[in-house]
Design goal:
By secondary structure, the chain is of the alpha+beta class. The chain has four helices and ten strands, in the order ββββααβααβββββ. The strands form three sheets. A four-stranded antiparallel beta sheet has the order 1-4-10-5.
């Protein structure tokens, strides 16, 4: 889906690592996957399926680390289909998740996401819940989604132009967003931030990709 350029308030006052809320201006449009990357898509590119829930090719791939997503994107880019793929930045992710909303949630949690209260203890095929105003599905719940950025426990000094915050990435903690089938509903808030080591592979970690058209 083509996400339009615009400005938004990133973060919130709900948790220390969501402070300070700050204006971010993304002065470019970008393509973001309508769905989370599925097991079938991962299998087609990587030749394997690392997922715990392997009985559902249209469910999001999971048990993938940040390092694994980089290998997937490297191979995806070798296909030469006219796009360059990458993980979204944390700012791009929150902007796309909010889709113009300013509250804690982009919409009714039960209608938009799979979490521990409605998931029956597993992932579900992508696109079964309601899309947000940008036409994106499962931005809330199903699986966590890795972002490019290193994790910092406050936004002091964060970029305000949509770029990835990578200074100090030697700490090896990366940002994930969106909550999952395994987590409580509050993790599906638009500003909620997760962090894990970049080699962590739980059964609720997946990804969504940005596609940048190549110019010749």
């Amino acid at each position: 889906m083509l996400i339009p350029s615009g400005s938004f308030m990133m973060g919130s006052t709900n948790a220390p690592d969501e402070n300070p809320a700050h204006q971010v201006t993304i002065n470019y449009s970008f393509y973001l996957g309508r769905y989370e990357v599925t097991q079938g898509q991962w299998q087609a590119v990587m030749g394997n399926n690392p997922s715990y829930f392997k009985d559902c090719s249209n469910c999001p791939v999971e048990q993938v680390s940040w390092n694994d997503t980089e290998e997937f994107i490297y191979k995806l880019n070798k296909l030469g289909d006219g796009y360059t793929y990458r993980l979204p930045t944390e700012a791009e992710w929150e902007y796309a998740c909010r889709a113009g909303t300013t509250g804690d949630y982009a919409g009714p949690v039960g209608l938009m996401g799979w979490y521990d209260g409605n998931s029956d203890g597993r992932t579900h095929p992508v696109g079964q819940k309601d899309a947000n105003a940008f036409g994106l599905y499962d931005m809330q719940g199903n699986v966590w989604e890795w972002c490019q950025d290193s994790y910092y426990d406050r936004y002091q000094g964060a970029p305000n132009d949509g770029s990835a915050w990578l200074k100090g990435s030697e700490q090896k903690l990366r940002v994930m967003r969106g909550g999952s089938w395994l987590t409580v509903s509050t993790t599906l808030r638009s500003a909620y931030r997760g962090d894990r080591a970049q080699d962590a592979r739980p059964s609720d970690f997946g990804l969504r990709v940005v596609a940048v058209p190549q110019t010749h």
